[in-house]
Each structure stands twice: as C-alpha cells, then as structure tokens.
Amino acid sequence: MRKVKAATEAGRSRPGPARGIPTPENPNKAITSSLPHNIKAAVGLSDVLREMGDIYRADPDKAVHGQGFIKLLHAYVGTQLEARLTKFARKRGIKVVKEATILGSTKPKDEDVAVIDPENGPLVLVGVRSQMSSVGNNALNYYEMMVGECTSLEDWFPMATHGYIYLHPLRSIKEGKQGEVIDHGRYARMYAAVTGRDRREYKTQRGRFDHFAYMVVDFDQDPPSLRDDLVNAAVSDVVLDIDTFVERLIETSKDRLLFWDVFE
C-alpha cells in the first residue's frame, strides 16, 4: 500500500505534457488529449425552448422579427461545441466564434457558429435560421440561398464539417397568420435531400450538408415542445433531430481529423 502511494505521489510530481499539450514537433504524430474542463457551462436545449416560449408569449412580433429569438439557438450550438473542446484544442487557440465572417467561393458569409483553428481556418461551420410565418411564400427562396451558401463554403473548406439548423413553428405565430398551413413533411424531405455528404467522397461533393437539424416547435405548449414525430414520419432514412445534432457534427469532425484530437 505504501509503495502504491509513493508511486502515485511521485507521478504527480513529475512534469509532463498534461500541463498543456502543444502542437507536436513531429507533424506526423497523432494528437490525443484529455476531456474538456467545463462541460456544465453548455446551454441546454430545454432552457433554449423555454426562453423562446417566453419571448413568444411576451411579444409574438418580436419572436418573428427579432434577432434575440434565433440567437438563443446560436448560444446553444456554440456552448455545446465549446464545452467539448479538448485541452489540446484550447492550447492551440481553437475557438468557437459566433457570426464569423468566412470566405466562400462567391462572397464572404457571416456564419452563425464556427469552430476555427488560428492557422488552418474553419473546422466546423453551422448556419441557423428560423422562419416563423409566411413559410410557404419564402421557404423555397431560403432553400435555394441555403444550398448556394453551402456550395460556396464547401468550395473553400471541403474538409470542414458543415451543418445547418432550420426551425419552423407547428403553426404560424404571427398575429393574423395562425391559420397558415405549413407542410412540415414536405420541408423535412427537402432538407433531407441536401444532407449527408459521403464519408469517403465528401471532398468532391458540394451543396450538401454533413448534418441537418429540422426543428418543428409547438409554441402553444408551455414550455414549447419539439414535434420530431412529424419529421420522422416524413423522413425515415436521414437523422434530422436537434437532440443529436451537435454530437453528429463532432463525430464527423473527429472522423476527418484523425490526426488531431480537437473534440472530446
């Protein structure tokens, strides 16, 4: 017992790479690292939905047009990604940046959430959009814009992991528009059609996200509830839920960056 204790104390006194893992002198060396330090700081999805509901009940018009509503989702994705960064990633200066200006092949794009290496650029890029009313009038235009931006960013950064979150209400929450019919099944199929870059051929694919989350939210509930059942009924072969979105992004990023341990 004394030998074990002595060995443990000796191990604690020895300096080692655990005090901050630098970039290796040998660039061919794979990097491993320890767990992130503060996963509890991440914003939870239930808290986001509750705050969205509060904004909606206080001022539906603000929920439709205000930036504070959608920025709750920015915070959710950003803090979830940041909480999963390893000590190696933090030591390197890899950061999660909101509204990062990223060069595409046609023009710069203010990407809602980006994980950026200081020397190598974007590792993960995530767009976020909510459309709370007049969905039928604008959804196709936004769809075309979304796919075009994806193509432009993938031209510059084919190895980055590209994701998107789209939120529709179960029913339009704008006053006077509550009777609007939203074909959630149709939109789920549209988003599934531009999701899932091939695991091996992704470098040559454009206009297709690695992962997508389609949120259908019932704001008449308190707190608001997700209607994943509507999405799953329309799409059975592609995962589109928000609950696993960040984990899917991280797993794909880890699969591509086998030589660097950026995420836990």
Terminal residue distance: 34 Å
Overall shape: it is: globular
Radius of gyration: 21 Å
Q: Going across the major beta sheet, what is the strand order? A: 1-2-3-4-5-6
Please count the beta strands (DSSP E, at least 2 residues each).
6
Which regions are unreliable across 5 or more consecutive residues at pLDDT < 50?
1-24, 27-37
Specify the number of helices. Answer: 9
Q: Report the mean per-residue pLDDT as an integer.
A: 85
Largest sheet: 6 strands, mixed
CATH architecture: 3-Layer(aba) Sandwich
In CATH's first tier, which class applies?
Answer: Alpha Beta
SS-based class: alpha/beta
In quaternary terms, these chains amount to: single chain
Q: How are the SSEs placed, and which strands pair?
A:
Elements: H1 2-13, H2 45-58, H3 60-65, H4 67-83, H5 87-92, E1 95-103, E2 108-117, E3 121-130, H6 135-156, E4 161-169, H7 184-193, E5 211-218, E6 225-226, H8 228-234, H9 245-256
Parallel strand pairs: 3-4, 4-5
Antiparallel strand pairs: 1-2, 2-3, 5-6
Protein described:
- By secondary structure, this protein is α/β, with parallel strands linked by helices.
- It has a single domain, classed as Restriction Endonuclease (3-Layer(aba) Sandwich).
- It has 9 helices and 6 strands.
- The chain has helices spanning 2-13, 45-58, 60-65, 67-83, 87-92, 135-156, 184-193, 228-234, 245-256, and strands at residues 95-103, 108-117, 121-130, 161-169, 211-218, 225-226.
- Strands 1-2-3-4-5-6 form a 6-stranded mixed beta sheet, sandwiched between helices.
- The longest helix has 22 residues, at 135-156.
- The protein is globular and about 50 Å long.
- It starts with a helix and ends in an 8-residue tail after the last helix.
